[in-house]
Amino acid sequence: MFAKIFKRVSIQAFIASFFLCFFVNLFITYCMSLGDIKQDAFLKTVGFSFLFILITLLVSLSENKKLNAKFGATHLLSFPLTILLFNQEGTFDLKRGLIGLFLLIALNVYTRELKQKQPTQEIFLLSVLITSISFFNYNFVLFYTVPFLFFIEPQYRRLKNGIILITGILCTTQFLMVCSYFLSGHFFYKSVNVNTIDFQVSESLWLGAILGSVVIALFFRHTQYKNSLGKQGVYRAFQFMLIWLIISILFRYLNLYHGNEKWLLSFIPTAFFLGLGIDYIKNNLIKELLILTLIITAVSFNLYQYNLISF
């Protein structure tokens, strides 16, 4: 059933993914509210469902810029599944939403088809986007790894590209400093200290999902991803998500995040790699059994975590 519905990126698949996101979010809301869902919580569930389908759309478009494409359709399924597995801690606010949006835009910028041209515009846009999120938390400078990946390829090692990168960083930083001073009276946001922390039992299911994503990233090679898509250079989505996943693990382990979102940064790359893992399974029966096992495990864990059932 799941394998057939999410075989290709289509309008029908997006509709199915939305309703799947909705029912998953409704279930999570039910658990967190201990079975008493208020009207405002229901409206937030609808809003979050639209948000997740938008995120899924941006990730899918980073792989295929058109509908009716086979590769990338699995993420329409993996994102709702990942919501079930996710460690539901922390709150979603405008700042975190902007950080996630900027990273998704950066993903689509990095995965553009360059053909024979230089990535001058892409490097500039990436420098602006990454500098913007780094202004909220300077630890996001780790994402500068992404534009530097262009310089690994010999044809893009141009002095002009390096100047554009530095110019984008400096100009954006100065602009944000001026805006911050007029709005708050301070030039910089206060960042966080590095401090290793212990993991909690409630994070165990999500730690399993992270571990699974790392295993998939190690065994699903860049060349396989590129060949699956049949396009040169589109495998950059894999590179971007791998960097994103590694940084999110560092953020959690070194306590680099703000507030109590903990694993929030890891949600999108984990969903991405779980989608690759599901798509890699060619036997539909095994794929369906794996999906059902994930759903049953996640549902049982959430009900037990919120004391709605006992074993």
Helix-strand blueprint:
Layout (H helix, E strand, L loop, with lengths): L1 H4 L5 H22 L6 H25 L11 H11 L8 H17 L9 H17 L8 H4 L10 H26 L19 H16 L2 H8 L6 H18 L13 H14 L3 H22 L6
Helix pairs in contact: 2-3, 2-4, 3-4, 3-5, 4-12, 5-6, 6-8, 9-11, 9-12, 11-12
Q: Report, as a whole number of angstroms, the end-to-end distance.
A: 30 Å
String of helices and strands: HHHHHHHHHHHHH
How many strand elements?
Answer: 0
Q: Unreliable runs, pLDDT <50, ≥5 residues?
A: none
Helix content: 55-70%
Residue-averaged pLDDT, rounded? 81
Portion in beta strands? under 5%
What's the number of helices?
A: 13
| Structural class computed from helices and strand pairing | mainly alpha
Our Rg estimate from Cα atoms comes to 20 Å
| Biggest beta sheet summary | none
- Can you tell me the overall shape? globular
Report on the structure:
There is one protein chain. The chain contains 13 helices and no strands. The chain has 311 residues and is mostly helical. The model has no long low-confidence stretch (mean pLDDT 81). The longest helix has 26 residues, at 159-184. Helix 4 (75-85) crosses helix 12. 31% of the residues are buried. The two termini are 30 Å apart.
